[in-house]
Amino acid sequence: MSEGRIHDLAVKFFQQTCTPAEKIELAQWIEQSAGDAELQQLLERVWADYEPQAQLTDEVSSRIIGDILGRQDIEAATPRVRPMRKWFGYAAAAVTVVALAGGYTRWKAGQPAKPAVVKVAEKKVPQPGGNKATLTMADGSVVPLDSTLNGAVMAQHNVRIVKTDSGLVTYQQLTAPDARPVYNTLTVPRGGQFSLVLADGSKVWLNAQSSLRYPVSFSEGTRTVDLSGEAYFEVSASSKQPFVVKVNDMELTVLGTSFNVMAYPDETLVNTTLLTGKVVVKHGQTSLPLQKGYQAVLNRNTGKLTSTPVNTSEAVAWKNGRFIFNGATVQEIMRQLGRWYNIEVVYAGEVNEQFYAEIPRFANAAEACRILELTGKVHFRLDGQRVTVYP
């Protein structure tokens, strides 16, 4: 295979445009490579134009590489070789390529392979989620927002509702809003995602198994919406109309801000991550101003509300087409995968490990599990929409 062909395949894979046959062709080259020098040089060139979403610290990157390569001494690698974040980029990408093709024979000279051993029963492999949602109107009628409605226009209380494409619905204020608010609800099922532009211009991205209740139009005073699940907000600034997100027994007050909220009923922690602007998080008698780059965490069991600096790219990875796991347990990981692939997860033993991984959100469930298996810490069996986790 020519170097040009290899380069083109690598670029297509990182951009997630490879066909299954092209993935196999690329993986075969990696498997058959006589040494790692050519592999490293090629992937470095490709990754120069394709940086990973995660802005990871050297320590976290080292752990990822240690998991992937089965090495305990990777943290001792000298910086003069190349920045550790680059190590994460091309190594994780290359391992992903190989995992998608079904395993590999070697990565670095002298390093034993850790073949992916995901067992798949003779049933259809769960596929990634897509743009799915239903719109519940104020009168109780339910509108499925599928591809047949692309370009559809609906009218409600001086507002035009336009489904512009398969993953977006937009509210456009035509005249003065009603004095009394009228509410709609956008509901995204397991295995779905959807976006929404509110009548004030604020944008909302809803993750799987989430819903948002919101006014069709915003009259004077506070703009208030109710969230269940996870959403990323880009709020239109208005000093006269604060924007309030109600989630469980919390309230988030903002003026013009971008932030992510994860508040699933099956999660112990409710996380609010601020990317830009200012947010005030209120729970009971506690009011916590949140700074850019910080995450407010509410522990539902203790009722304690705290804040800590975080890598914001991890919190919004789902919106950008990836899963990023930074020291996550397998239970935390499988809850996210379960919502996205609409799969049932069962455990055949305890896995008490932390995982560091980045997975393309549009890989299928078997591919995602294979990537996790490359750590050597966990194994899976897929049987239709059921995934069994083994130590």
UniProtKB/TrEMBL annotation:
Domain spans labelled Protein FecR C-terminal: 322-389
Segments passing through the bilayer: 87-107
Domain named FecR protein: residues: 185-279
Keywords: Membrane, Transmembrane, Transmembrane helix
Taxonomy, superkingdom: Bacteria
Protein known as: FecR domain-containing protein
Organism encoding this protein: Chitinophaga qingshengii
High-level lineage: Bacteria, Pseudomonadati, Bacteroidota, Chitinophagia, Chitinophagales
